[in-house]
Amino acid sequence: MNPAAFIQIDLDGIWAVRKCYGLPEDDYIERDPVYEEGVLRFLELFRRKGVPASFFVVGRDAQVAAKAPVIGQIAKAGHEIGNHSFDHTLGLTRLSELEIRDNISKAQSAITSLLEKGGWGKEHYPVGFRSPGYDADARVLHAAAELGFLYDSSIFPTWWGGAMRLMDAYISGRIFSGKRQYGTFAGGLKLLAPHRVKAADLWEFPVSVSPILRLPFHFGVAFLRGFDYFRRCADGYLRRGIPLLYLFHGVDFVDARHLMLVPSRRGASFFNQPIENKLAFAERIIDYIAGNFDVQRARDYLRRFNGSI
Ligand SMILES: [Zn+2]
Questions:
Q1: How far is the CA of 13 from the centre of ligand 1 (A)?
Q2: What angle do CA 107, 149, 205 make, to 5 degrees?
Q3: Which residue from 23, 85, 125, 202 has the highest number of Cβ atoms inside 10 Å of its Cβ?
């Protein structure tokens, strides 16, 4: 039997990406190429390949009238919708327990009320949470469990977090102090496979990294490093029979001209690749995953453990 694979997309809008790089974001919430074209390209690709996916929605986007039908289309296509915080605050772990809980719960209300208005039943409501910038600690997991989530997917089990933060600083041309994305060194010691976190009474679905060196190979990185790099990393999961969690971001499928909305000279040359190349590369990745793994939604994977959760 093939190991399970989960294809997941973080739907950070252009505004959320700008926010990550410390740029003003308020003018970019209504018109957003991530929703206007990115999501549609993902849906089209997954429809053609017949694979289910999980889209993690930021609560603030669920309150934007123009984005509501797009989120409805995700549900209609049978994909899972997850919760990616209310406002994509980087550094959730710097907040108090109450603030963490409020942030996740405000996002959940925004997403569920949108789904309810669209006539989508409770089976579409998010049961998975991913913290912005993969920044989670025991309090975040605890808050998610208390709010009724079945799983968290915020752990990036790498020890290269510091290097990835440096890369961000290079791309944006700015240094940020106190950023906590990509977790800490200890993240590298964490498990690769989905597992139950006993202390918080929910499941953790770690984002996949290469099994030995723990290098990231989500779409943005794999696209720069090439298909063989992706395949070597994914093969490690196949050989070990470990489920694969393969991550995309909404901006991965946005035309390069819109990425100028993240105005940095270095950022532009880093991201400035024709969308056709990105789509063709993504198609190879999806073909590989669908051909070797049993692609499913995380919430369905958990069904087999019903009664033990
Ligand atoms: Zn995000």
A1: 8
A2: 105
A3: 85
